[in-house]
Amino acid sequence: MLEKQLNDTVDAEKAKGAITNAGVWFRDLNNGPVIGINEGVKFSPASLLKLPLAIWFYREASSSPDVLTQEIEFSGPKGQSIEHYPGSKGMEIGKTYSVEDLIALMLEESDNDATAVLSQIAGIKNTDSVYKDLGIETVDNYQTYVIDVKTYAAFLRVLYTASYLNRDYSNHILELLSKSTFSAGLEAGAPDSVLIAHKFGERVIDPQKGLYQLHDCGIVYVPNKPYILCVMTQGHDYDELAKVIAALNREAYTAVSTNGQ
Q1: Distance between CA atoms of residues 102 and 91, nearest Å
Q2: Which residues lie closer than 8 Å to 1 by C-beta, 6 or more apart?
Q3: pLDDT tens digit string along 144-169?
Q4: What CA–CA distances, in Å, run from 14 to 2, 101, 223, 240?
Q5: Cα–Cα distance between 50 and 13 in angstroms, integer?
Q6: Any idea what the CATH number is for the domain that residue 162 is in?
């Protein structure tokens, strides 16, 4: 049974010290099982919140399509944040980008400079509408905001069902998520042939104690058996956390692809 397998994996990884905590949310998108492991435990979402920002822009584009073609010259300076899993491109000072270009960088590369520019364009409080529409607590302070796996999965579900954005916009965002450069989490737990539309986030929680969080949430497109898997983890080594996320998706993928749980 998948629920027991996921729970046993979390317990085993915690026992050996690979994680100090983890939350897991699984949802079969063919109206099958829903499984939650510590689904109410809240974590710092970090770059996971780039997804609702992207959703806000496409929601705006539903009535004002020109918002996506607006062009901005990036004058810098570039951000100084140090990431364990950085993207490969990054923005170039002096180059002009459309809003749609910036959204692609934000979702595919998890680029913080693109995110900062988009946040300025949107006006940070304006994006509250996405959270409110989905019944999710809004963000007052990004440094202290926390969310659980079950709640975050709602962003993915409304894209899959195209129940918040139209089908074209929903599919476009999912396509961008499927091009994520982060491959050590969910992607490492399934064959390369399986498409995964996902967003990851990393955050230093306590540098003195060496405490980190790493999350990866996405839609795994097993043929005819798609599912959402959202995993949020905390521990002392990013690469170990990534291995735990991969292991949990390996359990889910094996169960779904072999016997549908």
Answers
A1: 9
A2: 261
A3: 999 999 999 999 999 999 999 999 99
A4: 18, 40, 32, 11
A5: 28
A6: 3.40.710.10
